[in-house]
Amino acid sequence: MKAVTASLQRLLNQPSHRKIGGLVALALLGGWIVWLQDFSQSPPRAQLPQVHGEPDYYLEDATLKRYNAQGRHHQTLEGKVVTHYPNTQLTTVDLPRVHHWSEDGQLWILSALEGEIREDNEIYLQENVRLTPINPDSAYTPEFATQRLWLDTQTETARTPDPVSFSSQGGLTQGLGLFAQLATGQIEILEQVSSEYLTEFTSRNTQEQP
Amino acid sequence: LPEDREKPVQVNAQRMEWHNQRQQGVYSGDVVATQGELRLEAATLTLYRGTNGELTRALAEAGGELAYMRDLPNLDEPEVEAWAESIDYHPAEDKIILIGQARLVQGEDSFRGHRLTYNLTTQDLEAEQAETGESRIEVILTPKRSNGN
């Protein structure tokens, strides 16, 4: 062991070897720092969409909690990527999911592929939009589906002029246009309504069929 | 027809309101509900659903005109038609309750009263007058002509 140390000593005493040794040490240090980097995180999005001007910040896997003027937590918005554009005061959300609690505590869940939080507290959802009123007392959960939906957080209303389907266990309804009053739990399909319901017999027969 | 009871109920209307607290759907505007040959027409139709979402009751109510019902009990029998201020259909019991200016006609037979309860399968009919004594029961049965006279 003394021999090895002595020969290292002799090697390092020569000037050129000292430089090489320093470089090697630096390389080792650099490698160690790189090794410390946590590569489990995906690299940040290099290119953010510029459709609404230059974004100033974006969040990944974000949860936004919103409170009304009285300080009541009435909405939680989750998004895969939330991007804010100062020029238009617009926030775009990928895979938005909104939990909205109305004044009387009724919970509504809204989701879509894309969304926008707009200046006047409106949330705009598009593509595969789902609106679900959660009713703990009921054995089944009705779900409204459409392509675009405008949720006005101020008036607690949601609306669309687009085709709408309303499905629940044992029933399917289709129509045109929707207006939902989240505060009262009342949802209206505005035009051309067509429904089909199973009765006790039909649902029993449907279950008995192989 | 007897097998109609196992068919789903179809509803068409201009509008529909879903009341989440009551888990009820209210249809309005030229409402037509059908189940096989059974047909209901009314200004509004309120649907009640069971805990598993199945349809347990359909209440058709008149607007300006009376609510209307038509059914074909069997292929070899005349159609049944009925009118009333409200027509209350209970699928699980094959029962239809007509209330208010109720009138039911089958072929040349007709029945009037405040409240008529009709069974779609057995074709039993129960008639009641209003508690106030108004709209007494009226039954007109036309004897079937035997061959030759």
TrEMBL record, chain A:
Keywords: Cell inner membrane, Cell membrane, Membrane, Transmembrane, Transmembrane helix. Belongs to the LptC family. Involved in the assembly of lipopolysaccharide (LPS). Required for the translocation of LPS from the inner membrane to the outer membrane. Facilitates the transfer of LPS from the inner membrane to the periplasmic protein LptA. Could be a docking site for LptA. GO terms for biological process: Gram-negative-bacterium-type cell outer membrane assembly. One of its GO terms (cellular component) is outer membrane-bounded periplasmic space. InterPro entries: LipoPS_assembly_LptC-rel, LPS_export_LptC, LptC. HAMAP family: LPS_assembly_LptC (MF_01915). It comes from the Bacteria. Component of the lipopolysaccharide transport and assembly complex. Interacts with LptA and the LptBFG transporter complex. The chain crosses the membrane at residues 20-37. It comes from Marinospirillum celere. This is Lipopolysaccharide export system protein LptC. It is found in: Cell inner membrane. Its main location: membrane. It is a single-pass membrane protein.
